[in-house]
Amino acid sequence: MSPLDFLSAAFLFGGGAFCLAGTVGVLRFPDVYCRLHALTKVDNLGLGLVVVGLALQSGSWATALKLLLVWFFVLISSAFTCQLIARAALRGRGAAPWGGRREP
Amino acid sequence: MDPGDAGKTRRNTGGLQKVGSWFRAGAWKSAVARVVFVGMAWWALCDGDPRSFIFGVPVVATVSVVSFLLSPPRSYGWRLTEVVRFAGYFLAGSVHGGFDVARRALAPSMPISPVFVRYRMSLPGGAPQTVFRITLSLMPGTLNADVLGDELVVHSLVDRGEGIQHELKNLEWRVSRLFGLGLPPPEPAHA
Amino acid sequence: MHELRTGLAFFLLLNILAGMVRVIRGPTVTDRFIVAQLFGTTGVGVLILLAADAGRDALRDVALVFALLAPVTVVAFVRFAVGSDAAPGSDKEPRP
Questions:
Q1: ipTM value of the model?
Q2: Closest by CA position to A88, among listed C76, B116, C89, C94
Q3: What percent of chain B has pLDDT over 70?
Q4: Do A19 and C64 touch (CB under 8 A)?
Q5: B110 with B35: CB under 8 angstroms?
Q6: What's the CA gap between A9 and A43, in Å, rounded?
Q7: Which of B29-43, B156-170, C42-56, C78-92 is predicted least confidently?
Q8: B24-48 pLDDT, tens per residue?
Q9: Nearest to A92 among C19, C89, C91 (CB)
Q10: Does the CB of B47 have a partner CB in chain C at under 8 Å?
Q11: Cα(first)–Cα(last) distance of chain B, in Å?
């Protein structure tokens, strides 16, 4: 394995770990708004790491750029997604926010 | 927009003003940026196949013209160095944000104390506010929940009191610098 | 490398399966929809992982289409599922 393969594998593993953390966040967080944090931030970072890992081993600039384009679209769409969902939940008959606190 | 900044951009490309009064000096930069973006997107979509440019050149031209017709360039000046700097800040912020939320989700004690805060934006409407709201949602711990005129409802995963307001001010200042708008820099945090 | 990518794609599929728990438990439509968005992002990840194998380049375009269609589902959801014209009580009933 070349050093580039090692780097790529590290990015892929990191991406998998963040996707897992995103799923755990969606499952564990107490209300809609907190789950949106897990959805938009953690999962996008996971996908971003997978994209970088795959772009490193793609062997073609055009393919690497296409992967980055996929990530860019997901990033933009999720930034709007979380705003729209949060607003709908706040204004409509959505979920009441969780009022608790859990200090470290 | 800031009159001083308009003068600066106009001076850079003085000869182009004859093209027409509607075609402001800043529009050239916007046109080049759009053509470059669409062209690169086409190149990537076709996996870099050189033959695809038989179709690609007309498509890129048409898309660029249509994008100009539907959304004419705004009068905000922007500089490439500022865009690169903001992109770096955005990338670092979203990685930090991802780490932060992932850590809280995985920690057995799940240390979160969610809170809604209100924040009055001093950025002008349109593109600057949109960029601010998009980046805000990907920064550590904050999420744009609702807009009421110039006031944002921000959901924060951790209640940090004044810290949230200060962070938002800092981000707003960075967005204003991206668009060449002169917002005053935030005073340093009193931790 | 092929084994790593396939394994990771399988792992992401398991993540999707785990997300089903939140779909079942809800409690609101919005919670379920958030998982649908999670499936979207994870599904894009699975597709680009599989597309890296020789001869499966088309899957990358499928991922691109998935990414572009995700906002459409959100707008439809916001307009018709939790908007002001939503059926009364359709969103708040916790599941038994």
A1: 0.82
A2: C76
A3: 79
A4: no
A5: no
A6: 18
A7: C78-92
A8: 556 777 788 888 989 988 888 888 7
A9: C91
A10: yes
A11: 34
| Angstrom distance (rounded) from CA B24 to CA C53 | 48
When the pLDDT of each residue in chain A is averaged and rounded to a whole number, the result is 83
Supply φ then ψ for residue A59, to 5 degrees. 75, 10
Cβ proximity of B114 and B161 under 8 Å: no
In contact, A37 and B101? CB cutoff 8 Å: yes
Two structure tokens written together for A91: 């204004």
* Beta carbons of A59 and C53 less than 8 angstroms apart: no
| Spans of all domains in chain B | 3-70, 80-178
pTM of the model: 0.79
- Cβ–Cβ < 8 Å for C58, C45: no
Task: Determine the Cα–Cα distance for residues A92 and C30; give it in Å rounded to an integer.
Answer: 11
Q: Which residues of B touch A94 (CB under 8 A)?
A: none
Provide the residue type at B35 as one letter.
Answer: V
Q: Minimal Cα–Cα distance from C6 to chain B, Å?
A: 23
Question: Given CB atoms, is B45 within the 8 Å cutoff of chain C?
Answer: yes
Strand order in B142-148's β-sheet? Answer: B115-120, B151-156, B142-148
The per-residue DSSP string of C15-38 comes to: HHHHHHHHHHH--SHHHHHHHHHH
